[in-house]
From TrEMBL:
SUPFAM superfamilies reported in the protein's UniProt record: Protein prenylyltransferase
Family named by the database record: Belongs to the protein prenyltransferase subunit alpha family.
Classification via PROSITE patterns: PFTA
The entry's keywords: Prenyltransferase, Repeat, Transferase
The keyword Transferase appears for this protein: yes
Coiled coil regions in record: none
Record field: compositional bias (Basic and acidic residues): 8-20
Protein known as: Geranylgeranyl transferase type-2 subunit alpha
EC numbers for this chain: 2.5.1.60
Pfam families: PPTA
GO MF terms held by the record: Rab geranylgeranyltransferase activity
Gene Ontology cellular-component terms listed: Rab-protein geranylgeranyltransferase complex
Length: 455
C-alpha cells in the first residue's frame, strides 16, 4: 500500500544487523592493523593519535590504544612541542575521554586516561573536574567509577571536607541505596569528627547522629543492604584494648597470651615478670614465628620451683599498670589469668540510641518476621548493648537466621560458636579453676580465641 513503510520480517532484520556488524568489524580490523603497523614502525605521531581516537570513539575500552596515546603524548612532549601546543593536545585528550564517557560512563580506561592527563599536564582545572563529577553523579548517583574519580580530584584540589560530607548527604537523600556514598561518607567522618580518645570511629555526638540517619535509610527499604553495612561499620569500628589474657610459668617454659596480636617491641617494653619480687630477664620469641602474634614465649634462666611468689605486670593502653598474680598449680606451674571482657564499649548516649533503635527493630520484626536484615540487626544490637544479658536470645535469633537465610548458614554457625565461646570464657576466667571446657550444645564450626586456652 502507498504511504506505508514496509515492516521487515525478523529474519530480514537479523540479516541486516549482521551485515552492519560485519561491515563495522571489517573497518575495525583494518584500523587496528594500521595502528599496530605504525606502532611497530615507530610512527608514534599525531596521525596515530587521530587514528586511535576514531577507534576509541566507538569502543572506549581498548586499553592498549590508550597506552599508545600516552606513549605518543610523552614523545611529543620530549620533542619540544611548545607549551601551547601540548596544552591543546591535552585539552583534546580530555575532550576525547569525555566523549567516551558519554558512550560508557563506567569505562575504566577513559577515567584512568583522564586521571593520567591531569597529573601530567601543567595547571589542571580541578574545579572543572569536580563539576564534571557532579554532572555524572546526577546521571547516576551510584556510579562507583565517578566516586572513585571524585576521591582522586578531591585529593588534588582539597576542597573543604565539610562540603564533601554535605555532598554525600545530598546524594543519600536522593537515594539511600548507594554503597559508594556511604563508603565515602565514612572516610569524611573519621577526619571531620574524630574521637579524641581514639576508641571509637567518630566522636559520640556524631556517632549517635549517624546511627539515626542510617536507621531512616534502613527502615525506608529494609531489603536494601547498603545502609545495613554502613551501620555495621559504625558499630564494629570500636577499638578494643590489648590485654594479657593468661600466662603460664613452668620449669619448661613461660608463655603469655594476649587478647590481640602484638609484636616483640610491645612485649619487651610493656611486660614484666617477677619471681619473689625480682625482675626476671630474658628474651621474647613469637610462638608462630610471625612478627605479630597472640602467643609469646619468654625464655629465661630463672629456676621455677615450689612456693614462689610469681606475678606479672604490664602497662595497659590507658597508662595504668596491671598486676596479675600467678597461682600455684600442679608440678611447679604457676598460672595467672587476666580480666577478660569481650563486650564492646560504647558511650551512654550511643547505648541509649541503640536501645531506641532496638525497639524500632522489634516493631519492624513484628510486621516482617522473616526479614533477614532486620533480624540480624536486632541480634547485633543485642550483642552491642549487653551480650551476656541477651545471650540466649542472640543464639536463638542466629538459629532463626540459619533458616530464613540458609545460604549463609555457615556464617551464622561461626557467630554462634564465637559468641558462645566468649560467653563461656568470661565465666571460666572469673572462676578459680583453670580446667576450661566448652559447654554449649551447638557444633563447633571455628576455633576463635584459642590463645585463651593456652595455659
Amino acid at each position: 500500500m502507498h504511504g506505508r513503510v514496509k515492516v521487515r520480517t525478523t529474519e530480514e532484520e537479523r540479516a541486516r544487523k549482521e551485515k552492519e556488524r560485519q561491515e563495522k568489524l571489517k573497518i575495525y580490523k583494518h584500523a587496528m592493523q594500521q595502528i599496530f603497523h605504525k606502532r611497530k614502525e615507530g610512527e608514534l605521531d599525531k596521525n596515530l593519535l587521530e587514528l586511535t581516537g576514531k577507534v576509541l570513539s566507538s569502543n572506549p575500552d581498548i586499553y592498549t590504544l590508550w597506552n599508545i596515546r600516552r606513549e605518543i603524548l610523552i614523545i611529543l612532549k620530549k620533542a619540544d612541542e611548545s607549551e601551547e601546543e601540548m596544552s591543546q593536545l591535552y585539552d583534546a585528550e580530555l575532550q576525547l575521554t569525555e566523549y567516551c564517557l558519554k558512550i560508557n560512563p563506567k569505562s575504566y580506561c577513559a577515567w584512568h586516561q583522564r586521571e593520567w592527563v591531569l597529573t601530567t599536564r601543567a595547571n589542571p582545572n580541578w574545579e572543572k573536574e569536580l563539576s564534571l563529577c557532579n554532572m555524572y553523579l546526577k546521571f547516576d548517583e551510584r556510579n562507583f567509577h565517578t566516586w572513585d574519580y571524585r576521591r582522586f580530584v578531591v585529593s588534588q584540589c582539597k576542597p573543604p571536607l565539610k562540603d564533601e560530607f554535605d555532598f554525600t548527604t545530598d546524594k543519600l537523600m536522593d537515594n539511600f541505596s548507594n554503597y559508594s556514598a556511604w563508603h565515602y561518607r565514612s572516610k569524611m567522618l573519621v577526619e571531620l569528627y574524630p574521637d579524641v580518645e581514639g576508641g571509637r570511629p567518630i566522636e559520640d555526638s556524631h556517632h549517635k547522629h549517624e546511627l539515626k540517619m542510617v536507621q531512616s535509610a534502613a527502615f525506608t527499604d529494609p531489603d536494601d543492604t547498603s545502609a545495613w553495612f554502613y551501620q555495621r561499620w559504625l558499630l564494629g569500628a570500636v577499638k578494643t584494648n590489648i590485654e594479657v589474657a593468661v600466662y603460664t610459668v613452668s620449669p619448661l617454659k613461660t608463655t603469655v597470651a594476649f587478647s590481640k596480636p602484638v609484636n616483640q617491641t610491645y612485649v619487651a617494653s610493656k611486660i614484666r615478670l617477677f619471681i619473689n619480687n625480682d625482675l626476671v630477664n630474658g628474651e621474647w620469641q613469637s610462638c608462630s614465628g610471625n612478627q605479630y602474634d597472640v602467643l609469646w614465649i619468654f625464655k629465661h634462666n630463672t629456676d621455677v620451683t615450689d612456693s614462689l611468689d610469681v606475678k606479672m605486670e604490664y602497662d595497659n593502653e590507658n597508662g595504668d599498670v596491671q598486676k596479675i598474680p600467678g597461682v600455684k598449680q600442679n608440678g611447679n606451674t604457676y598460672v595467672g589469668k587476666g580480666e577478660i571482657d569481650f563486650q564492646r564499649k560504647y558511650s551512654k548516649p550511643v547505648i541509649e540510641e541503640l536501645i531506641n533503635q532496638l525497639d524500632s527493630c522489634r516493631q519492624l520484626l513484628a510486621m516482617e518476621p522473616d526479614n533477614k536484615w532486620t533480624l540480624l540487626t536486632t541480634t547485633v544490637f543485642l550483642h552491642c548493648i549487653d551480650a551476656k544479658q541477651y545471650h540466649k536470645e542472640i543464639i536463638e535469633n542466629l538459629h532463626t537466621l540459619k533458616t530464613i537465610d540458609s545460604w549463609r548458614a555457615g556464617y551464622y554457625d561461626d557467630l554462634i560458636t564465637k559468641w558462645s565461646l566468649e560467653d563461656q570464657l568470661a565465666i571460666d576466667y572469673k572462676s578459680d579453676s583453670i580446667d576450661f571446657k566448652i559447654k554449649f550444645d551447638d557444633k563447633i564450626t571455628s576455633l576463635p580465641h584459642l590463645q585463651y586456652y593456652s595455659h
